[in-house]
TrEMBL record:
Residues 32-109 form a coiled coil. This is DUF2959 domain-containing protein. Residues 1-20 form the signal peptide. It comes from Planctobacterium marinum. InterPro entries: DUF2959 (IPR021342). Keywords: Coiled coil, Signal. It comes from the Bacteria.
Length: 212
């Protein structure tokens, strides 16, 4: 029964997506246009995530170097940074999923339409462009997932810090977290580097799509 329910849900989801794309196509917006828009949306989410995780690092730096003041306020700030970072990660993952959805629909349609050509030269050229676009897309989506995956270790470490401080809100507790700081800093720097790489690949992919 569970398998049937899952299959029915997937069919319904597929039908909804098909209707969604059909509506846009009726207004002159093709799947390739939607793909470009969604890749750009991922870029925006990556840039926002970079800023957010950098902000979290700044706040953690302040906390680690805590030298008097209200500890509760310091804790509240780092907790807010963790929550915002988690939201940023979820937003990025959701947008990557949407890129994958429209890319799959686009490539399926492109492949199916190859059989409709009567001109063999045009068909071969279209097939070559399809394979090249799929290759570039495969590299891009891997880069997107790599950058998204780099967020999880940082979120895990930030959550550990927040939980520890929640139940040990004192100066000695902050001292205990100093050993974790360097690793978090390295992870965030690596995350930002991965995202910069993914953003650069996205720009190249968009240029390729627009030139086809």
């Amino acid at each position: 029964m569970r398998v049937l329910i899952t299959a029915a849900f997937l069919l319904l989801l597929s039908a909804c997506q098909s209707t969604y794309y059909s509506i846009w196509e009726s207004m002159g917006v093709e799947k390739r246009d939607i793909l470009v828009d969604r890749v750009e949306s991922v870029n925006e989410a990556q840039e926002e995530a970079q800023q957010q995780f950098a902000s979290a690092l700044e706040e953690l730096t302040v906390l680690i170097n805590f030298d008097g003041g209200e500890l509760q306020t310091a804790y509240d700030k780092i907790k807010d940074q963790y929550d915002a970072s988690k939201d940023s990660a979820e937003r990025l993952t959701s947008r990557i999923d949407k890129v994958e959805s429209v890319a799959e629909a686009l490539f399926d349609e492109w492949q199916d339409e190859l059989s409709q050509y009567s001109n063999e030269s045009l068909r071969r050229d279209s097939e070559r462009k399809l394979k090249d676009t799929q290759r570039r897309y495969g590299s891009l989506i891997k880069a997107m997932h790599r950058s998204a995956d780099k967020m999880q270790p940082v979120l895990t470490a930030l959550n550990d810090n927040v939980l520890y401080l929640k139940h040990n809100l004192n100066a000695s507790a902050i001292g205990a977290l100093q050993g974790e700081f360097d690793k978090i800093k390295r992870d965030i720097e690596l995350l930002i580097k991965e995202m910069n790489g993914a953003i650069a690949q996205s720009s190249e992919f968009i240029d390729t799509i627009k030139s086809n």
